[in-house]
């Protein structure tokens, strides 16, 4: 698979979220689809994080740990602090609930996991878009 350009990151994240929310709607209560939707939502959150880090630092770190370190550094170095802190909070929740607990561990919660997926779709991606927009249109 070709590496996504920075202009592709947020649209691809939104596309993945569309697939995740469609799966939730089409297969309510199905544990396998819930786990799959959680994986897609986490992938979307990770793409949004790559976009934010690139918008703030002009860097494309490889691996989740390096990506999270770059996000923390971007948050510590420059405004808008409140938006980056909110992004970090939302990302932490997505990482824990969607990636670790549901997608990786299979311990999906029928109420919490769909809420976490919706939060990525409605909040995290919007904050990422706003941060990148501020960096390109100061």
Overall description:
- With 138 residues, this protein is mainly α.
- The protein contains five helices and no strands.
- The chain has helices at residues 6-26, 31-57, 64-77, 81-104, 112-136.
- Helix 2 (31-57) crosses helix 3 (64-77) and helix 2 (31-57) runs parallel beside helix 5.
What attributes characterize this protein structure?
single chain, 138 residues, mainly alpha, 5 helices
Largest sheet: none
Strand content: under 5%
Series of H and E elements: HHHHH
Give the end-to-end Cα distance, rounded to a whole number of Å.
33 Å
Distinct helical segment count: 5
> Low-confidence parts, pLDDT < 50 over ≥5 residues?
none
Question: How many E strands?
Answer: 0
Structural class: mainly alpha
Tertiary shape = elongated
Radius of gyration, taken over Cα atoms and rounded to an integer in Å: 15 Å
The helix fraction, in percent, is over 70%
The chain-level mean pLDDT equals 88
What's this entry about, in short?
With 138 residues, the chain is mainly alpha-helical. It has helices spanning 6-26, 31-57, 64-77, 81-104, 112-136. The protein contains 5 helices and no strands.
Fold blueprint:
Elements: H1 6-26, H2 31-57, H3 64-77, H4 81-104, H5 112-136
Helix pairs in contact: 1-2, 1-5, 2-3, 2-4, 2-5, 3-4, 4-5
